[in-house]
Amino acid sequence: MSRSAWFFSVLVVATAVLFAVDLAVGSVALSPGEVWRALTGGSVDPATRDIVLKIRLLKASTALLAGAALAAAGLQMQTLFRNPLAGPYVLGVSSGAGLGVALFLLGAPLSGVADHSFVQSLGIAGSAWLGSALVLVLILAVSRRIKDIMVILILGMMFGSGIGSVVEILQYLSDEAALKSFVIWTMGSLGDVTASQLALLSPVVIAGLVLSVAVIKPLNLLLLGENYARTMGLGIRRTRTLLLLSTVLLAGTVTAFCGPIGFIGLAVPHLARMSFRSADHRILMPASMLAGAALLLVCDLVSKLLALPINTITALMGIPVVIVVVVRNRSFF
């Protein structure tokens, strides 16, 4: 068995095991048998069935989708900008989505949609898509004129900081109920996603992941530079549009419903590169998706055991990877 096949087998098994463990672990400990009977409609206590089906299954499914989505979006952005430190959080894409959500949540009471759950879910998602798309378009426009990857990185961080300032002004001007709703959202959570929200999140994220798979060949060509890709017949503008759309669907949707979850999109693609020792996106894209899903499941388990916000766990796990990347790429400074 080749190295790649072995690692893929390990990732698939690890993700499946982590998903099952995530269903059993929580404030109420459940045995594997109870979880299985609850999932298959067997004889089990009604409270146990509700815990498994209405709480933990939703949360584990959200972690699975969100981890894969953020990792795929991060890999695409690192290749598109040819920047090892690019990612939805670092380049301000998550901040853009956050601005969209802030404008909607803090204005929802005024617009009269705060009490309509489906309309609110759709509004949150749409606002996040628009906000993240705006930031990505700005960064893409800058990257066409400025080739220095560190300058692009710094500008992305400045976009994020500027957006953060606007959000703080909105918070200062908002009422108490809307402010509380937004502050809770900013902490990041996998457990606040309802069944109706998951029904909206799932198809959008899956569509984004399908787009990510569709652009694997263009991503491989972009590794060799845009000029070479053009000589091979690649439509650069069309490719950028597809990558933009995919990243907006993935990062924007996850940020909308789960809050700004940092470091997954930045760290996981590098973990995949180091593990598989490959730059081929035919290997890296599925590997990043699986590793992202597995890592976010691990973070969810740790956050439940320690009763900590999910963002603190992803940061503690992602920061060492970023440090390694910076040390190994000293030439970028």
Low-confidence stretches: none
Largest sheet, in brief, is: none
- End-to-end Cα distance, whole Å, is 39 Å
Mean pLDDT: 82
Structural class: mainly alpha
Features:
single chain; 333 residues; mainly alpha
What is the fold's blueprint, element by element?
Layout: H1 3-24, H2 32-40, H3 46-80, H4 93-111, H5 117-145, H6 149-173, H7 176-186, H8 195-214, H9 216-222, H10 226-231, H11 236-258, H12 264-276, H13 281-306, H14 310-328
Helix pairs in contact: 1-3, 1-13, 2-3, 3-8, 3-11, 3-12, 3-13, 4-5, 4-6, 4-7, 4-11, 5-6, 5-8, 5-11, 8-11, 12-13, 12-14, 13-14
Task: Describe what you observe in this structure.
With 333 residues, this protein is mainly alpha-helical. Helices cover 79% and strands 0% of the residues. The chain contains 14 helices and no strands. The radius of gyration is 20 Å and the shape is globular. 45% of the residues are buried. The mean pLDDT is 82.
Describe, in short, the structure shown.
This protein is mainly α and 333 residues long. It contains 14 helices and no strands. The chain has helices spanning 3-24, 32-40, 46-80, 93-111, 117-145, 149-173, 176-186, 195-214, 216-222, 226-231, 236-258, 264-276, 281-306, 310-328.
